[in-house]
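Table S2 (continued). Query chain:
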Amino acid sequence: MDTALLFDNAIVLLPEIALAVGVMVLMMVDIGRRGQDDSALLASLSVAILLLGIGASVLIWGRPPVEYLDGAVSDGFALSVRLVILIAGVLGVFLSRNRFPAIERQGGAFYSLYLLAIIGMMLMGTATNLIVLFIALEIFSLALYILSGFYRDSPRSIEAAMKYFLLGAFASTFFVYGSALLYGAGGSAHYARIHETLATGGGNPSLVFPGIALLLVGFGFKVSLVPFHMWTPDVYQGAPTPVTAFMSVGTKAAAFAGFFRLMMTALPSFHDQWATPLAILAVLTMTVGNLTALRQSSVKRMLAYSGIAHAGNILIALVAGTGAASSAAAFYLFAYAFMNIGAFAVIIAFEKHAGDDNDLEQSSLAGASERFPALAAAMAIFMLSLSGIPPLAGFFGKFLVFKAAVEAGWAWLVVIGVLNSAISAYYYLRVVVAMYFQQPEETGEEEVPLAATATRSSLFVVTVSAVAVVVIGLQPGLWADLLRGLGQ
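Corresponding output:
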């Protein structure tokens, strides 16, 4: 193999390679400085590594799609997913710099696992082989299991990690079994070969639908589809808030990317058969997520159930099964990254102010507009965008997904999606009402200035996220053109 061809193949995984080398450097730095307070240095190094990954992604942006050893491909869709995950990763690192003692004590372990999770997530979007897909799934899953229980002195955090691990391991067995059945159906682990075999009448088509059903359990667990969502609120509430913020975005982007590529590359000839069951799951996921979020008093649990509802919205794009729909899903995830991480950044600032690092009640936000006008305004932007109010980014994310679904003939599903968006507006606007129209309870204690508890890192994330939500909403076409989907 000549040097040019070798480079063209290796460049497919250049962002992942850059991060893998960066993780090794970070671990060596941590070992060399053991016993010293180096959490700030490790956080800065992690940001530099992630920026290097973004640079590597930009470097190969626009190149013709190239596949590496029948296992991974670099195309517009993979690069879009990488961008979402890497940006979420950078913002998540900044959130971790908010005086979290557990992270400060074990910074080397935290940031190494964090970067490994990102590598696995990015691989999900590039995988064109069932084996690579499973390896990527397990890389980021194992890292997140540990990160979810990083508060080792907190029973709630340990409980969250155990639930996530046990249910995740159970879901992985379904995933492996489903992959084996799909391999038996198509005679290959490679997506394109599975499609070629089944489309020409070969293989064993009777194994396709059991395989899809089992794979759906594995993917459904990762993206919190109903009825595989039960772990989500407990893990969101118990895990360290920076981990929750990143996981809420990164896991969805990675799992949906893997799911989209598998279904639209390996099984497009069976679209008419698998689209309807997925549409039913989308309806259940949106409805259960939104109705349950109405009852939550904890802001993190409310965002957990709202995240479940958003997973149902994104699933509509897969049901449509077109290149335009996958582009719309990439845009949706890009906007969702800023909306959700920004909301969690505000939560961290208020948690620190209240002296509670693990939960925030909606009642604690009463009167926030008078005490902390900038934070309240940013939170209002995130809540309005998540509910789909124009001209913010969240509106155009939903609009593009619904438009693609209508064009593909799924108008009835879009009607249900719009009705669910109306339901979601109630609990999102309830947060805005608490901040702007309710008065806090008088405690008799002197108010602690927010500047004494909030760090510049969290305020930076809030500012960047709020500006991004507005800018993306004002120029949606620019970003939609950059975030290309499968078949584009």
